Model the fold of this input.
Amino acid sequence: MQKQRSVFYLSDRTGITAETLGHSLLTQFDGIEWRRSSVPFLDSVDKAHELAERINQAAHIDGCRPLVFSTLIDEEVRAIVQQADCVIYDFFGTFIDSMEQELQQKSAHAVGRSHGVQNNSAYFNRIAAINYTLSNDDGVSAKNFADADIILIGVSRSGKTPTCLYMALQYGISAANYPLTEEDMESMRVPKILEPFRNKLFGLTLSAGQLHRIRQERRPNSRYAALNQCQSEIQWQESLYRMAGIPFIDTSNISIEEISTTILNRSGLRRQLYGQ
Done:
């Protein structure tokens, strides 16, 4: 039977940093069922007191101290949370003091800089990338492929759209995608519409069994979802990738984060995270 423990992610702003770092650490511990609570915009004394009560209640129910991952800046709010019955992992407190000493200057202690819009250029570049990706999904506007940073190709339901959206949102990459169809299979060549952009192409593939399961959920018991159809399409597209020299990745057993990072590293694209 798994142990149950509560975990809280606290932030003055979005909580993305605390949740991402905290989750990464928790994945290293097996056999525990985590009851997760994200608490963004913890920016007042009243909110801090209410949260401290929640933490104390969770400690009483669990019979052990909740874990708290925090990127709080406000010292008064931090002090109230520290009085609760919990163990705190303060990401900013852990590093800021040491960095201030090394850099010989005080930090700004400003809220929201990690996910703010201080760098307008970087922020609006990401928004533009997201808009581009949404407008160029599934080969809808191939005329705009010249503006793409990368063009993902693959058979239907191979993960092109979510990967493109992730790269746009997280890295500011203008990613288009194009579906390989049965008509393309007959010619055994890169679709003519993609020929001018061969240097931007990157292929996705996956196991036939996984493709079958995904398609079965979408169109149960159809020819489209049949295992032999999936096997034929996967075999064909991988042969095409190799024949045309198109780099590709098998996404069967890796996360969308790993897929996106691998594509960027192999294609040499620069992440547009923090501007230039």
Summary: The chain has ten helices and eight strands. The longest helix spans residues 45-62. Residues 3-103 form a domain with the Rossmann fold fold (CATH 3.40.50). The CA atoms of residues 51 and 130 lie 35 Å apart.
